Amino acid sequence: MVASVMEVQVTEINDESGPETIKNWDSFRGLILFEELETKFSVKFTLNELLNINKIKDIKGILSVRGVSIAE
């Protein structure tokens, strides 16, 4: 999902990837990503959570706390 929204190869994405390492990750694409994640996993991110997401592992952590299992 991240690779699709950011228009990069899946091989460019790992737990340490984020706005600092993915050239296409801007605020607009970030919003699209979070909206798609909320829709797919039936969750709602808080503003505080969104402001503290810096890497893919942060997203996985939030989803895990909500009971969502992410397959690699």
Explain the layout of strands and helices.
Blueprint: H1 2-6, H2 27-41, H3 47-51, H4 56-65
What can you tell me about this protein's structure?
By secondary structure, this protein is an all-alpha fold. Helices cover 49% and strands 0% of the residues. The protein has four helices and no strands. The chain starts with a helix and ends in a 7-residue tail after the last helix.
Strand content: under 5%
Q: Report the C-alpha radius of gyration, rounded.
A: 11 Å
Distance between the termini: 11 Å
Structural class: mainly alpha
Got a strand count?
Answer: 0
Number of helical segments with 4 or more residues: 4
Order of helices and strands: HHHH
Biggest β-sheet, characterized?
A: none
Principal-axes geometry comes out as globular
The helix content, as a percent range, equals 40-55%
Mean of residue pLDDT values: 94
* Uncertain residue ranges: none
